[in-house]
Specification:
With 259 residues, the protein is of the alpha/beta class. It is 33% helix and 22% strand. The longest helix is centred in the first third of the chain and has 17 residues.
Length: 259
C-alpha cells in the first residue's frame, strides 16, 4: 500500500483499527480492500471525487499521495469531531478538503463529482433510500459510483465471526462486543439470497442517526436496492478477487447513474 508511512495516517481513528491493526489477518484484509479501491479510483485522475462517509480520511489521503491523484478530493462526514480531526491532520494537502454530509444538500454539489466513493458505510445505514438519493444527486451524469461493503453471509461470516471473537479476547479493535448469532440465524445467513434473511438490530434509536452493526447485513440485498437507482457494472471481490464474492470478506460495486 502506497504512503503507509505517512504519520497523519497512523493517527487516524479507523486506520489504527484497520490497516494498522495488531491482528495481521485483519490488517491484511483491510489493506487489500483499500488497494482494490485505489486501483478502481485510478480512473478519477485529475477529476473531482467525493468520499461519502470518509471516516478519518485514510482513503482520500492515500489516493492523493498516489501516482493518479484526483484534481479535487472532498471527504464528507456526519461527525463534526471527525471532520475537524481530518482537517487538522491533513492540513495543506493539495486538492484535499473535508465537509459535513449536510453540506451536500447545497445545489453546488449537484452533479459535481466524476467519482463518488462510499466505503464500508451502507451496511450501517438505516435510512438507505435517503443516502442513495444523495449519492445519485451528487454524481455527475456520466460519473462512476464505487461502493465497498463487507460480506456477512455464507462461509465468510463464520470465518469473520471467529476472527472477531479471537481479536476481542486479545483486546484488539472493537471486537469484544461482537453481535451473537443463534444457530437458526447462522443457518439462514449461510444460505441467504437477495432478500433480508434475519432481523437486523438497530442501535442509537432516538438519536439523530440510528445505525446497524454488521449483523444480518446482506450484500446481495444491497446490490438489488442499489440497482433501483444505479446500473451495476461490476461486482469485485476482496481480498482475493478470483475467489469471487461467495468466498470474499468484502465486495466492491462499480455503478453508473440511471437516468
Amino acid at each position: 500500500m502506497r504512503s503507509i508511512e505517512d504519520a497523519a495516517l497512523h493517527d487516524g481513528h479507523y486506520a489504527t483499527k484497520q490497516i494498522f491493526c495488531k491482528d495481521r489477518l485483519i490488517a491484511w484484509s483491510h489493506r487489500r480492500r483499500f488497494d482494490t479501491g485505489l486501483h478502481l479510483a485510478r480512473r478519477f485522475h485529475g477529476q473531482r471525487v467525493l468520499d461519502y462517509g470518509c471516516g478519518d480520511g485514510t482513503f482520500l489521503a492515500l489516493l492523493q499521495a498516489s501516482s493518479t491523484p484526483a484534481g479535487e478530493a472532498v471527504g464528507a462526514e456526519i461527525d463534526d469531531v471527525q471532520i475537524k480531526d481530518c482537517r487538522r491532520r491533513f492540513a495543506g494537502r493539495q486538492g484535499l478538503s473535508f465537509a459535513a454530509i449536510s453540506d451536500l444538500d447545497s445545489d453546488i454539489h449537484r452533479g459535481r463529482y466524476d467519482g463518488v466513493v462510499c466505503m464500508e458505510v451502507l451496511e450501517h445505514v438505516v435510512d438507505l433510500d435517503t443516502v442513495m438519493e444523495t449519492l445519485w444527486r451528487v454524481l455527475a451524469e456520466h460519473g462512476t459510483l464505487l461502493v465497498s461493503v463487507p460480506v456477512e453471509t455464507g462461509a465468510p461470516l463464520l470465518l469473520k465471526q471467529a476472527v472477531r471473537k479471537i481479536a476481542g479476547w486479545r483486546g484488539i479493535g472493537d471486537y469484544p462486543g461482537t453481535s451473537p448469532y443463534s444457530f437458526a440465524e447462522y443457518w439462514r445467513s449461510m444460505f441467504a439470497g437477495d432478500q433480508q434473511h434475519i432481523t437486523r438490530p438497530i442501535y442509537g434509536r432516538g438519536d439523530a442517526m440510528p445505525f446497524h452493526d454488521h449483523k444480518g447485513f446482506n450484500w446481495k440485498r444491497l446490490r438489488a436496492r442499489l440497482s433501483q437507482r444505479f446500473i451495476v457494472m461490476r461486482t469485485i471481490a476482496s481480498p482475493i478477487a478470483w475467489l469471487g464474492p461467495q468466498l470474499a470478506t468484502q465486495v466492491w460495486f462499480e455503478l453508473h447513474k440511471r437516468s
